[in-house]
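As a warm-up, study this chain.
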Amino acid sequence: MTRDTQAVNPIRSEIDLDADGKQTGYLRLPHSVHRSAYGWIPIPIASIRNGDGPVMLVMAGNHGDEYEGQVLVSQLIREIEPQMLRGQLILLPMANFPAAEAGLRTSPLDGGNLNRTFPGNPAGSPTEMIADYIEHALLSRADYLIDLHSGGSSLLYHGANMLAIEPRDADEDARLRALLAAFGLPKAFLHPENPVHSATAARRQGALSILTELGGGGTVQAKLLSEARQGLLHVLGFIGLLRGELVPDSAPGQTRFMHVSGSRHYVYAYERGLYEPLVEMGEHVVAGQAAARIHFPETPLREPVTLHFAGAGEVVCKRVPAMVQRGDCIYHLAEAVGE
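Now compare it with the structure written out below.
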């Protein structure tokens, strides 16, 4: 993606990100349409700041059908007051607002997938402008990014998980592992850098990042939300940003570090039909093991097609809708580091 470095991003903030105190408002993205010639898209934002200290951006609604993070960020905006902080917390509960308003993974305005759009373009589509603003106006002032995701409407993750880019050196490895352990969700997946993801946008701007995958399936699970809230508040205390009674005594639990090894850890449909799962979430599988069957009810005498795992690992994610098409992801595996 080519960024127009000469263009000025038209998004304007209603709040002053350099001011102390608690502010809420909107990022105004000009959007002229038939219904509203001089209109703008309202992207909710909050800033809670108390002097100098660490700066963290916490965002949700990067994908609009992932609801857990939107609920959690809204809770934080209501609960945290400036006197509890030393530094600044910037919060985006619906980062890709058009997608979040519609309950869709991607924007209904331009089909944009925000987490495949960084670094964005200030002269581009609405999603490209949002990505550009997040990276160059928000992440440029942050030390940390927490990007709250889930499986959305098409996938379901096993429990509460964290993702982070593979560290580049020993110092970054130590800092990242300490941050992940302080968040304390059960599993942490280390993955290669992808230039269009928010995590790499954070890295380009000098910020350390954690992305979560909290359940999914178009639902909000109370247990996962509680774990994520405890972990996030604990990590805010760990970095010295949050102080006082709101900081939990401990992280939710011990973190297992895992890795994903490319295509061998994914199972995809190659036929259109209805899929029948043959393994359970959390199960350990081996290469060659049967993963799922695709059934063809419109052709009653046709035998189902059996899909197999290409590699070994733990089942950490599965597809939710039974109806599949060629190219749909059915399972996602991961392996414990050192296996």
